[in-house]
């Protein structure tokens, strides 16, 4: 008969597989099961710790310090009684941590918007509409960016040391266009009104751009030695901005008008 730990570990593996297999927009169906498993493991962990602490206290009262070091009976007691309880406690504690991380990640993916940062470097996110999954990457002391190419059905990635890098898919040429700038930031936005990509660079600063469907123009913002990303908020009908000093920024947001995710990042390097 399987132990409670084996059953919980098996449930975690099943939910982990479903998490990786499920599209980002459908992650919400896993929350109840993950929350229930998290609480179940937490209760078991309390019992494990109580049982282990009680057995350890009994062992210390039964054998003094010298006996615990030199006698065979104490060694056998430790091996046969304490070690199994300690092992299951540590295994359950590790499992609880994994479940907590999976629950946190799943909750983040159920939000309409998720932002991640990376200190003194760059971070980027790309949504793959084919798999329904978002891919995150980061780079230390340099820029990194990725773009989904609908022609090849793959994500193209590039990174540059001590430089900003950004790519945008050009629907006219059916290719990803790339630009880079040393010691600064670069950003490109496809403007459907003029059917072209607009580019901006900023030295020693991050830069972000957002197409405003009301004005049919791209709005720009820079942040000195920091990351900046923006998105069009349909509720307020304005462009919203997020800035963070000396951090790379990446954002993924659900767009109700096109029923998919948009992604953007501040993929620059601004110097020390």
UniProtKB/TrEMBL annotation:
Name of the protein this chain belongs to: Uncharacterized protein
Organism: Adineta ricciae
């Amino acid at each position: 008969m399987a132990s409670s730990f084996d059953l919980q570990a098996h449930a975690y593996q099943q939910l982990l597989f479903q998490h990786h297999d499920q599209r980002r927009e459908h992650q919400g169906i896993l929350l109840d099961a993950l929350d229930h498993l998290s609480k179940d493991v937490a209760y078991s962990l309390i019992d494990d710790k109580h049982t282990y602490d009680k057995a350890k206290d009994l062992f210390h009262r039964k054998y003094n310090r010298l006996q615990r070091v030199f006698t065979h009976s104490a060694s056998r007691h430790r091996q046969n009684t304490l070690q199994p309880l300690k092992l299951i406690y540590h295994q359950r504690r590790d499992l609880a941590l994994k479940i907590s991380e999976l629950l946190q990640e799943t909750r983040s993916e159920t939000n309409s918007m998720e932002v991640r940062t990376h200190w003194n470097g760059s971070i980027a996110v790309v949504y793959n509409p084919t798999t329904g999954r978002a891919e995150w990457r980061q780079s230390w002391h340099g820029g990194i960016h990725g773009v989904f190419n609908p022609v090849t059905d793959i994500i193209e990635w590039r990174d540059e040391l001590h430089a900003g890098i950004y790519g945008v898919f050009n629907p006219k040429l059916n290719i990803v266009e790339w630009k880079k700038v040393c010691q600064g930031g670069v950003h490109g936005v496809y403007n459907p009104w003029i059917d072209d990509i607009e580019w901006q660079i900023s030295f020693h600063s991050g830069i972000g751009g957002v197409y405003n469907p009301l004005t049919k123009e791209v709005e720009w913002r820079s942040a000195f030695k920091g990351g900046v990303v923006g998105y069009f908020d349909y509720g307020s009908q304005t462009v919203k901005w997020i800035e963070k000093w000396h951090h790379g920024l990446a954002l993924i947001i659900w767009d109700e008008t096109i029923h998919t995710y948009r992604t953007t990042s501040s993929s620059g390097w601004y110097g020390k």
